[in-house]
Amino acid sequence: MPNFPKLLVGPCQKTMSRPLEVPLVEELTSCQNPLDFKRCVGTSLREVERLLKEILEVRSKRNRENTLVPYNRLMLDLGSLSNAISCLRSVHPAEEIRRAAEESEKEVARLATSLSLNQELYQGIRQCDPLTLDAKGKRLLKHLLRDFHRAGVDRDDATREQVCVLRDKIVATGQEFLRNIVKDVRLIELEGLEELEGLPVDYVREHAPQPNGKIRITTDSPDYNPFMTYATSDTRRRELYTEFRRRGFPDNLEVLRLLMTQRHQLATLLGYSSWASYVAEDKMIQTPEAIGEFIERVSRVSQTRARREYDELLSQKRKLDPGATEVHDWEKTWLEGSIRSEKHQFDFRAVRTYFEYGRVKTGVLSLVEDLFGVRFEPDLNAIHWHPDVEVYNVLEGGCRVGRIYLDMHPREGKFKHAALFPLVRGARNLAVPEAALVCNFPNPRLAQGPALLDHDEVLTLLHEFGHLLHQLFAREEEWSRFNGISNEWDFIEVPSQLFEEWGWEYDALKRFAIHHETGETIPRDLVERLRRAKAFGRSLAVRHQMFYASLSLECFGPEAPDLDTTRVVEECQGRHSLFRFVPGTYFQASFGHLNDYSALYYTYMWSLVIEKDICVHWRKSGLMSREAAARYRDCILRPGGSLDAADLVRSFLGRDYVFKAFEEWLEVV
Q1: Which residue from 8, 382, 384, 576 lies 20 to 30 Å from 343 (Cα-Cα)?
Q2: Domain-embedded: residue 213
């Protein structure tokens, strides 16, 4: 085991214990083989079991100190273990370690399920007198008892046994669903360089012909997204689009059906009509009926402008094909770029030259430092799972208050999209927060020239950093249950979507948007034209998102076990998107959110409605206002889940949030 540095100094050392230990994710990363990995997991599980035994052996009157405090530590340790395993299952370069993590993930989930159904533990917590607790202690007790009830703790022995079996199956099925997506990297082969017409110079340089003269374009994001945006070959775009939407097919059709069935069985066993009804209950929205109404409302308010945008796309297409009668899904991004170029004299390939990955990453770190008064210090001695991973300690007032891992580039076997993996929730006197930010941006180490990002990729980085800020700053509550990203699920995208706003702000972009050849800072008028150009297609995108949200809801509704998911995809797309379903594609087979978000994909748009109201309020002070940033941190981020999300927003806005700002944003030209 390597000798880890003690990272806390000065007075912080007196108030923290966990930060002086080896970070759990690094301890697991140091394991040389699956046996060592499982042995390390076993050690952590035994500590959780010891804490459980300590709680159950209490014979005196139950109270805060002998029950809630040790339970808090138990859940902090179990959550940290679960998070570290989940992260390494998604990012570790060694397949045998990823497999060991999958097996360990099942074991940890099994223990978590047994805890949620442990009647003795439930009764012990239930016996804590709320009159002896302060307001946050009472809230903790209320939430714990609610969660125990929703888990099924008060059901009979046979039912609780069935719950255990089903939860085990759901974890395994979800793992298989995600694994099939990750491993299914598809490609098309181009005949020659002429089929790369329209692509940026750096993209062409990175896609040299193979010895047989063919050029390979894969379905991984760094290949797929630029190709669909810039390639002039409609035939090749359709071919790549089809392959992208066949990932996970055919295996995941059956795996998804099984996942839907198992979740439906669990929900009905617990007394709910559907999985959607079960998972909506403790969210801001509360019911699947309300989800459906929200989806319809968003589709309705975006309909008129979306139709105008579609008609513009069709007119643009008719310049090349006068007889065209519709725009296809694989054409929309390219046609949008063509309209933006003509109408706004804007070329996204040009703006790309200002976004070199290294500068963007450094600039985003600097932006966070200036807005929120923290500092990111590289930890060159940290253990990480791949040479490309960077580790930073987060410092504030001379103390280490967090730790982040940046795993930013694609590789074989790695998670394919972008996500924030929470590792450790902060807890006063127990732990500082840790998290891993996982993306798939071009890799400077492997590139033949500069690793350039599209503006959308810059927004993706800011989005995930918004999640990271939430994880880092919600750390000061005593109860870990309320720290980190612990709000209602349909609120958690608010901080991430809010931080995207700085990707449109000149005063933020000028820090890092530097031309990779000339050293010129991005011109202000280019940022303005970028903003105007990207407004086109906004309502079309919103309607398409409602297709995804509707699909998510339908797959976990009352009819879930009997659904033909391909038919549901076609119906949902036809009802909400203006782009027709493409036969021979199976989007649901690679829609990973059907595993983690299940019926709750609507949360992205629900959160966006709230975010737009918050942003309008913030802009009154200027997005670069440190005072507004401090108020946002204090009102929205710092309390974590210790208040209802609606109360957090009310404390920042001084009123309830409203739909108006979102509707006005849809109409901005």
Answers
A1: 576
A2: yes
